[in-house]
Specification:
alpha/beta; single chain; 2 domains; six-stranded mixed β-sheet; Rossmann fold; 32% helix; 472 residues
Length: 472
C-alpha cells in the first residue's frame, strides 16, 4: 500500500442494475447529491421488459419516459458531461437530487478479472462498474442491485455493491408499530388528580396531560400486566390533554360478533377497530392462525347484514402461488378467483354454522353469506370506486407500496378497508418484511385518526398449528 493515498470525493457514483429500475422507476431520483450511471446493457434490458401489461412492463415504460424527459434535446456531448436530475413533480423525492445522470456512450475498456466467465448481461453490467472504478480512482463507485448473486460476484472481484435501500420502510421489522402499548400496573394510580374521568353516550372516557403520555398515536390500545387491568384506546389530543376511551371487551359472550367471541386481548382490540364506524382503514398483522381473516369477516357480516352499514363485502387478494403455477383457470372472474380464496371459504363455513334449523338452516345461512360476499380480482381494480362497501384485502404482505396505493384509493364514501397479512409469509420476489407494501401502509397510516392497526400475537387455530408456528 502506498504511503500516501489520494482522498476520495464524498460524491459517489452509483451504477444501477436493471432490476432496481424495474422495482422503483423513480430510483434515479433517490440518490440525493450522488451521480447515477446507467450502462447500455441496462437500457437493452429495459427495452426487452417493456412489452406487456404487467407491473414490470409498466415500470419499464415509466423508466424510459423519465430518461427521455431528462435527455430532452441534449446531444452526445451534454450526455457525456452528465444530465441534471430534475425530480418529477409527483413527489417522487422529498429531497431534490443535486447529482447528475450519466448514460454509457462508449465501451469502457479495462482488463476484467480472469475468473469472470461468459458474456452475460449481469457480467456486462459488472464489467462496466469495474471499469468505472478504474477510470475514477478519486470516486467511490458502487453497484446497486437487488440481485444477491450479482452483488456477491461484484464483491468477489473487488467492486463495492449494495442492495437498493430507499424502498425500505424500516431498518428493522421489530421497530414496526404494533398498535398496542403495555403500561405498568400502577400507571393510572400514579396520575393522581391529573386524571380526569367522565361518561358520555354509554362510554367511559379518561384524560391525561399530554406530557404524561409520550409519543401519542391515535387509536393505540393500552393494557396493563394483569387480565383484569383497565384497557383503553387513545383517541385524540385535545387542549393539551390525551383523551382515552375504555374499550369494549369482546371476550365476553354478550358482546359476541356474528356468534364469534374474541379469544385474547389483541383480538378484542381488533374488533373494537373493525366495528367502529369512525375508523375507515384497519390493518391486521399476525402469524398463521391468529384469526385475521375470521375477525375481518365476522365484523363485516355483522355490519352489512345486521347493522346495514355496508351494502356488501368485497374480498380480494394477490394471486401469488406457493408452488408451481397450475396454469390458466376457466370460468368467470369470481370462478377464477375461487381457488385462491380457500381461506375465505373456510372462514365463511365456520361463520355460517347455526344450531337453528339443522341442515336447512345451515344451507340457508351459507346461501345468504355468498350473496353478500363478493370475490374480486385485483387485476381489474384500477379505475373502480367502491361505495358503501366493506373491503377485505387478504394476504396483503405480497403487495408493493404502489399496489397498495392503487387499492386503497378505490374506496369511495361510506367504505371501509381491512388489510390482513403475515409478514413472515412473503411470496413476491424482491419484497421483504421491510419493503412490503403492508409494512409501508402500517407505518404511513399510524398518525391518521381514522385508521387503526393491531398486531395479533397468539395463534388460536389449534394447538397443533400454534406449536408448528412457534417451533418450525
Amino acid at each position: 500500500m502506498p504511503s500516501a493515498s489520494k482522498k476520495k470525493s464524498a460524491q459517489r457514483i452509483f451504477v444501477l442494475d436493471t432490476n432496481v429500475l424495474l422495482h422503483d422507476p423513480t430510483a434515479v431520483f433517490r440518490f440525493n447529491e450522488h451521480d447515477i450511471f446507467i450502462p447500455m446493457m441496462v437500457l437493452e434490458e429495459l427495452d426487452s421488459a417493456k412489452k406487456g401489461v404487467s407491473e414490470v412492463a409498466r415500470n419499464a415504460r415509466q423508466v424510459s419516459r423519465f430518461l427521455d424527459d431528462l435527455i430532452g434535446e441534449a446531444d452526445r456531448t451534454r450526455i457525456e458531461a452528465g444530465l441534471p436530475l430534475d425530480a418529477p413533480g409527483n413527489g417522487a423525492s422529498t429531497r431534490p437530487p443535486s447529482g447528475k445522470l450519466f448514460l454509457q456512450t462508449s465501451p469502457l475498456d479495462t482488463a476484467m478479472p480472469a475468473g469472470l466467465p461468459g458474456n452475460t448481461p449481469d457480467n456486462s453490467i459488472l464489467s462496466t462498474a469495474f471499469a468505472l472504478r478504474a477510470n475514477h480512482p478519486d470516486r467511490a463507485v458502487t453497484l446497486v442491485s437487488k440481485d444477491i448473486n450479482l452483488r456477491i460476484k461484484a464483491r468477489v472481484i473487488g467492486v463495492s455493491a449494495e442492495d437498493y435501500y430507499n424502498d425500505k420502510v424500516l431498518d428493522d421489522i421489530a421497530l414496526l408499530y404494533t398498535g398496542t402499548r403495555a403500561i405498568p400496573a400502577d400507571f393510572w394510580e400514579r396520575q393522581g388528580a391529573a386524571l380526569a374521568c367522565w361518561q358520555a353516550d354509554g362510554n367511559t372516557f379518561y384524560a391525561l396531560p399530554a406530557e404524561s403520555y409520550s409519543q401519542f398515536y391515535p387509536n393505540e390500545f393500552l393494557y396493563g400486566p394483569n387480565p383484569e387491568s383497565l384497557e383503553v384506546r387513545a383517541l385524540r389530543l385535545e387542549e393539551g390533554r390525551v383523551v382515552f376511551q375504555r374499550t369494549r371487551d369482546f371476550r365476553e359472550p354478550r358482546h359476541a360478533v356474528w356468534g364469534l367471541q374474541a379469544r385474547n386481548r389483541e383480538q378484542s382490540f381488533a374488533l373494537n377497530l373493525l366495528l367502529d364506524p369512525d375508523i375507515d382503514f384497519v390493518t391486521l398483522l399476525g402469524a398463521a392462525g391468529t384469526g385475521k381473516t375470521l375477525l375481518a369477516l365476522a365484523a363485516g357480516l355483522s355490519q352489512s347484514l345486521d347493522l346495514k352499514r355496508y351494502r356488501e363485502i368485497v374480498v380480494t387478494r394477490e394471486t401469488v402461488p406457493l408452488g408451481e403455477n397450475i396454469g390458466f383457470l376457466p370460468g368467470t372472474e369470481e370462478e377464477k378467483m375461487t381457488p385462491w380464496m380457500g381461506a375465505l371459504m373456510d372462514n365463511l363455513e365456520a361463520l355460517a354454522e347455526t344450531k337453528e334449523g339443522g341442515e336447512w338452516g345451515r344451507a340457508a345461512t351459507a346461501e345468504l353469506l355468498t350473496t353478500r360476499v363478493k370475490i374480486r380480482s385485483m387485476n381489474f381494480m384500477r379505475g373502480r370506486t367502491f361505495l358503501n362497501r366493506y373491503i377485505v384485502i387478504d394476504e396483503a404482505q405480497n403487495l408493493t407500496a404502489k399496489q397498495m396505493r392503487t387499492l386503497i384509493t378505490r374506496a369511495g364514501p361510506g367504505s371501509k378497508i381491512v388489510c390482513c397479512g403475515n409478514l413472515a409469509q412473503i411470496d413476491t420476489p424482491y419484497l421483504s418484511e421491510t419493503t412490503s407494501g403492508l409494512t409501508y401502509i402500517v407505518d404511513r397510516f399510524k398518525h391518521w385518526p381514522h385508521s387503526g392497526h393491531i398486531t395479533l400475537v397468539r395463534g388460536e387455530r389449534s394447538r397443533l398449528a400454534d406449536f408448528a408456528v412457534q417451533n418450525l
